[in-house]
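Structure tokens please, single chain.
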Amino acid sequence: MKKIIQLANQSEIEVGMAGLPDCPTLMLPIAKKSMYNQEAENLKLWGVDPELGKHFVEGLADTFQVLYFDYEGHLFQHPVENLTADHIVKDLLHIADEMNVTSFSYYGYSWLALIGLQMAIRTDRLESLVMGGFPPYNGPYQEMRVVTHKTHTQALSNQNDPVESPAGPESPNEMDWDNIKVTIDTRVTAQFVSLYQSLTAFDDRSIQHLLSLPKLAFAGGNDTIVYGENFGSVTVDIVGLLKKNKEQLADLGWDVEILSGAQMDHTKAMQPAVVLPLIKPWFMNVLLKNTGL
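Here you go.
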């Protein structure tokens, strides 16, 4: 089942529901639409599954009810002025309401993972939370504020230049951050600046006592990106922060997993073939163990 839902800024997003209606619901805002032909081949060069959303939904719908949509893709098509974490959480809860979903579990990756954390402290409708590619404790909010600000500044400078599509590296970790030319729509870059600015005063260490639900955090073993001078000369060390605080997180009730494998960076650690073997058994354990299903 698919439905078109109008959000707070009057834009419309396509939302799907699949799987078993009598089973717990998983919200997947990371369900990107499938890409084909040359676009698919370009994604494969980066180690990205061109049918990422489809494979996540199919991989979970035989056991759960899956509420899925591509929220990031939607923001790229319909940028939001003054985007904040509160705005996004309201959008996602509105989507759940429109799909008649009262309670649900959440899986988000990268910035959509931190949105899951924001949702968890704003509503009691979450049954469990999985955060991939963004640590839930002592997260790199300041570093990402710098990176997004620098990205937006460069996009503004380059907005009148012709768009070039040179062959890129195989992963963000191999990107030459000193020489990359940012040509993204400035309305898109501006909203992510707003998002991290809205989190400037947020202290994820102080809200852990509010998270009385099953929760999992994971990252790739090589998920560390060192940005050059053009992006603020900062290092976003996702896996380093997760490892550093692993014991503290365990004491706070978090399950923590570091994904091993060749060059398991930020991109490779978000692919369905890697993530599903981790999150599907975890969701089954925390959601189905007492149901008899």
